[in-house]
Design brief:
Elements lengths: L3 H14 L10 H8 L3 E6 L5 E6 L2 E4 L7 E4 L20 H5 L4 E6 L4 H16 L7 E5 L5 H14 L2 H10 L7 H11 L3 H10 L5 H8 L3 H7 L17 E4 H11 L5 H10 L11
Parallel strand pairs: 1-5
Antiparallel strand pairs: 1-7, 2-5, 2-6, 3-4
């Protein structure tokens, strides 16, 4: 299994590739949608033990007959590599990872904070995984090296190691209180448990202190401190089934180029849970 230093370096590398500094919080969803044009993100209610899933190479096309055809490819290609050297076409290996259509599924029954973490987790599988698995389902009960690595990477991507150290230093935090914990998780938009895990991992708090901070009604504690509590709740009903990214854009482009009819456009958008973009949803 890769050590934490290596996984942190991957997280910092990705931030640098996307021209984000390694200290500040990031709106990961917006960053992903702008930097990964071939990615579709699907929000969908899943089982309690499943946080999300991803498909590394999913080719979706609308053929000449105007009948949509979706093919999920078996993983027969070379494994993804971590170096950033250029290939024969002058395209870096990092950029070539983004060339195929990809899918990330996120369990919309999880809290928003957990969903943010899941998105970061799936990015590890898509961009840094060294195995050949094309289709990955992420289960809470899994203790595989792959899942542990993805969790550590996600934690460092959302809160870089150096960033948390600087955060504590700038705010002169000597002994972390519940006020400090909630303010930090709101700042980084990460779940309460994920924040506590990182504080323990970097030895800002003890396991005993973490247990004490867990035994609170976190949404109430956030509200009475003046914060929005959406971070601690699942997606609202209108976002339980929802898609963003390549799929939506592809349907719009197919319609604008007259490859599909208005009726087919609406049908495809409804299939992608985007009724808000259909004629009736205007």
């Amino acid at each position: 299994m890769k050590d934490r230093l290596k996984l942190n370096s991957f997280a910092v590398e990705l931030r640098h590739e996307w021209e984000m500094n390694s200290l500040s919080p990031v709106n990961l969803l917006n960053a992903v949608l702008s930097r990964m044009p071939n990615l579709t993100i699907l929000y969908y209610p899943m089982s309690d033990n499943t946080s999300g899933m991803c498909v590394k190479d999913m080719q979706v096309s609308i053929p000449e007959s105007q009948v949509p055809n979706a093919q999920v490819c078996d993983s027969s290609s070379d494994s993804l590599r971590n170096d950033s050297s250029a290939n024969g076409d002058g395209i870096s290996d990092f950029e070539s990872k983004l060339a195929s259509d990809m899918l990330v599924g996120i369990n919309s029954n999880m809290s928003i904070g957990r969903q943010n973490f899941t998105l970061a987790h799936e990015l590890y599988h898509l961009l840094y995984e060294e195995n050949r698995n094309n289709f990955v389902i992420c289960d809470y009960s899994s203790e595989s090296d792959s899942e542990i690595e993805a969790n550590i990477f996600a934690s460092y991507l959302l809160i870089p190691y150096e960033g948390l150290n600087r955060y504590a230093k700038k705010r002169r935090i000597v002994k972390w209180t519940l006020d400090d914990v909630i303010t930090a998780e709101q700042y980084y938009q990460i779940s309460h448990m994920a924040m506590l895990y990182r504080l323990v991992e970097q030895e800002f708090i003890t396991e005993e202190e973490s247990e004490k901070f867990q035994n609170v009604k976190i949404s109430h504690e956030a509200r009475i401190r003046g914060f929005n509590d959406e971070l601690y709740y699942p997606s609202q009903d209108n976002r339980k089934y929802f898609s963003l990214g390549k799929y939506v854009k592809s349907v719009a482009e197919a319609y604008s180029s007259k490859r599909i009819s208005a009726g087919k456009k609406d049908e495809l958008l409804l299939d992608g849970f985007r009724g808000d973009l259909t004629f009736k949803g205007k």
